[in-house]
Write a structure and sequence with these properties.
The complex is a heterotrimer. By secondary structure, chain A is mainly alpha-helical. Chain A is built from 11 helices and no strands. Chain A has a single domain, classed as Orthogonal Bundle (MetI-like fold). In chain C, strands 6-7-8-3-9-10-12-11 form an 8-stranded mixed beta sheet, with helices on both faces. Chain C has a 4-stranded antiparallel beta sheet with strand order 2-1-4-5, covered by helices on one side. The chains are: A mainly alpha, B alpha/beta, C alpha/beta.
Chain lengths: 296, 344, 361
Amino acid sequence: MASKKFLFIFDRQESLVTLSILRSSVVTTAGLVVVIGFLVTSLVLWLTNDAILPYNPSAITSAVLQPPSLAHIFGTDSLGRDVFSRVLAAAPIDARVPIAVLSIAVSLGVLTGTVAGYFGGWIEEVIMRVTDIFLAFPGIVLALAIAAALGPNINNSILALTPVWWPFYTRLVRGETLSVKSQQYVEASRASGHKSRYIAIHHIIPNILPITLVYATLDFGTVIIVFSVLSFVGVGAQPPTPEWGLMTLNEAQYLTSAPWLPLIPAFVILLVAVGFSLLGDGLRDALDPKVRSLFG
Amino acid sequence: MSEILVVEDLVKYFPLGSSGFFDRLRGREVPKVHAVDGVTFSLRQDETLGLVGESGSGKTTLGRAVLMLDPPTEGKVLFEGQLISELKGEELRQIRKRMQIVFQNPNSSLDPRARVKDIISEPLHAFKEFDKGSVNETLLRVMEAVNLPEDSLTKLPHEFSGGQKQRIAIARALVLNPRFIVLDEPTSALDSSIQAQILNLLRRLQDEYNLSYLFITHNVGVVKYMADRLAVMYSGKIVEVAKTRDVVERPLHPYTIALIASAPRLEPERKTGEIPLTGEIPSAVNPPNGCRFNPRCAYAEELCRTKEPELREIVTGRFSACHFAERFLSSHLPRAENGSPDVG
Amino acid sequence: MTSETLLEIRSLTVKYRTRVREVKALDGVNLQVATGEIVALVGESACGKSTLGLSIIGLLPQPPAVVESGEILFAGRDLLRLRESQIAAFRGTRISMIFQEPMSSLDPVYRVGDLIAEAIDVREKRKVTRPFGPFEMTNPAYKDGRDGGFKRVFGVRNPRSNRKRAYSAEVVEALRKVQIADPAKTQEKYPHELSGGMAQRVMIAQALIEGPSLLIADEPTSALDVTTQAEVLNLMRSLRDEIGASIIFITHDLAVAAQIADRVAVMYAGDIVELANVGDLFRQPQHPYTEGLINSFPRQFKDEGGLEAIPGEVPDYHTQIVGCKFNPRCRYALDRCRVAQPDLIEVRPSQKAACFLRYPE
């Protein structure tokens, strides 16, 4: 029936158009490069089980606090471990957590938001009040509480972070649904005799998903940062597991004596967060129908 | 010739603002917008009934109410002899196969993310009896009917011009083989040179497929060209109904006179003069007492301020809702030197 | 009344630069407007009529618009060569503009009276704090200025209530001149309380406060009901007679042009294809596009024969057409039309057309 679509939105021709729009600006290309580099690195490391790293990220040596050199590109930390290897080893973790959190949050958000927005009435009231309750908690506090209760490990962090994000998506999706619902093509569909379920799946969701995904990419960096806070406090990743936020905050004491130690992981977080942010901005542009029509 | 659509005393009110939970508890009445306030008319098979009015007349609301897109608050709608205003759910859905709508703005009536073939075939997928083979066949037939090339099927709406998009919308309306189509200002959003193409297309389709049209517009020239009979609406009511020629050349209602006189003509030497009209369109929440048009009417008298006129038959086939409609019987609107009708 | 050329546009070419390509919105346009004349710019989408209007008053968003070449001569100055601060001095004083959606053009948080008073205030301040410079006031009624409670020497600003009181009489007069019934009551209303027709009249009143010699009206009646449109058109005609301002009236509706204009410029895809007195244009159109537009205007009844539609599509900004831009849709197209672009030449006295069919050979 309908042509095959990637993520409900783009089929092959449209994906190519999106790509060429992203490539047309230096800034968004940079973002795209960073994001792809990050994801590919994480994937490779995960698949090869860290085998390709120059040093074992957990290997404690006596060469402590070495500044960056040819042997150790990013130097060594207070336990003599190679910082470069640790930074790379942390990539799969810092990729997996935001991807998992955002996938679940967006899916839940789309489901609840669409139902709330399309059907309205008491269903909408119930869903939105529950959402409001979650939103009333400061994000980090909520995440900390859940993580502490569940026990400190990475998977529990994912479970702890998801409830912080999904309400935002519910709210966003509901708003978008309301605006799409009032469009005439939805009415035309009703006039053709279609039922609500069909309309929701074929018209509402494909039209709200693009902007939702843009917001998800923009949130990526934030999730990493909040996860880092969890790890620092002790309820996320546990030492000696390499994790960028953990590395930054644990080695903060060496800021004056061995500045590369806290600054490099911090910079990596910044780089990835900004990369996603630029990509998200670029995607938002790429989804604008006026811009798309320029590209074919 | 039988009547395909009969509307009796149709009323459509919209509540103004939302009545909160507590308002309902206290029994507070919410002010209502009287969009359509008691309308009766009929449409014959293969006929085009024009529905003319300005903003606030209720013409769009009436078009949608007749299709049950916004079901009427009160009143009856009989389609092909069946009382559809009481129908709900699956029964109503089945009726939709036989009545369709074309909206004004082709930019918003087509899903920007869907390919043309999915847009046009969408109505077919609402009903299980269509299989893949017949879908393709219908698609091609309908594309040919509206003069769109076959390769349009795989494209997206933004790749087309306004006129082409409207053809796609018309194709979509044809796909279920309806008997009756509501056309809600189908050419108002299009360029003038394209408008003629679409109007000609609609007339050709009406002949080929034996369609009945309810043609809603504010443009007098367009409705002259398209409609067999014409109904003029003002402030939620029909003020005049008759054959198009009679309404345009020998109007029997002061509002119609003003409306026809205001339509700009293509002859620069015949400038629109003083329009026999004052004031503004009345509030839809609090319509005036008596005849709704009376505050603006150049001919209003005491009776008009107290008693609301009925839509009655003045002469065979010509109806007017004016207490003094008979006075206009003898006058004609001025004609141009060459004898052609005054408008346009 | 002797008429002289008020505005002259020479070879104006304007392009829009988008991320991917450059498109031409206006392609070497020439136009003259005399004092007290109403010229209609008629055309369909992407013909460049709005771009032309905005170029004159210097409101083209640059970027993405780029004025590639040409001159706009007004009162002896080339408006295109002026700095923003210089052209701003013209706006509202000698050249005014009104737009299509009156509701969006009026600030909803101010009452109508305040909006008009603001325009008067701008005028008064210009007189006091910054002398009007080399430009003379066009309307002698305002030359002496009004005291209005101002401290002239030091240009001290009036508190709002004083100003409102001082201007109140003029505000009521301005509203009365645009045929608003009960101006005293209307000045207390907010824009959302007005109907479309009244809001457009308020806009016209604002635009005319300083007595401009040129008013650019960009589709001012397109958003109005047909009965209101007729009233506003009548109003604009009588105001022109009273004040002597020239009007450039931009519209897509040929019939509206017939009703309001002295001369009509028909535009197509960035060119003026026909320029004529309104009577001549409709009686004997010299360009196939004009002829097509007139023929495709529905005037007849359903049983009186068909409508002749112009085939094909209206070109958008991106479409590149070789030769005469109208040639793909023209029933008279010659081979020549497909390779070269005709110039706008005089076919009859005061009637110009850009068509090879009209070339004298």
